[in-house]
TrEMBL record:
This is NUDIX domain-containing protein. It comes from the Bacteria. PROSITE patterns: NUDIX. Its cofactor is Mg(2+). Residues 1-122 form the Nudix hydrolase domain. Keywords: Hydrolase.
Length: 148
């Protein structure tokens, strides 16, 4: 599964969003369509999720997770019209935050991806390690479902 997320900066502030039923802030983005180009998919997601046109600039990083078939692309994205009006039916909240003083409840993987953006040394290729206890719990749950 391929996903793409955007780092959108406006006046030195970073855009973070919250989804319905999720108490954490995240970068805007989501799943890409099968066989979809990552950059075109990122533009499509921004248009669909936030209702404004954008220009995908730099690849910040490609992130994979240990024991998961998931690839996440993070891009620096620029608004084509400065100070674009945002509307969303997918997000319950979106707000701009100081990039050096993020809220505490930011999705854990995004902390690393935002940090990679702030360093300016990208693109990054990183594999997130998963907690072994969580892997055992997930495998136990899968096994129990198969038994039923």
């Amino acid at each position: 599964m391929k996903k793409a997320y955007a780092v959108i900066i406006r006046n030195g502030l970073i855009l973070l969003v919250r989804r319905q039923g999720m108490p954490v802030w995240d970068l805007p983005g989501g799943e890409l369509l099968p066989n979809e180009n990552e950059r075109e998919g990122m533009q499509r997601l921004i248009k669909e999720l936030l209702s404004f046109d954008s220009k995908v600039e730099d690849l910040i990083g490609i992130y994979t997770k240990e024991y998961h078939d998931e690839i996440t692309y993070v891009y620096k994205v620029q608004e084509t019209i400065s100070q674009s009006k945002m509307e969303s039916q997918d997000y319950v909240a979106f707000n701009f935050f100081d990039i050096h003083n993020l809220p505490l409840n930011v999705f854990p993987d995004r902390h690393r991806q935002i940090k990679d953006y702030k360093t300016g040394r990208y693109p990054v290729r990183l594999r997130f390690k998963q907690n072994r206890i969580l892997i055992r719990i997930e495998n136990f749950i899968k096994q129990r479902k198969k038994e039923k």
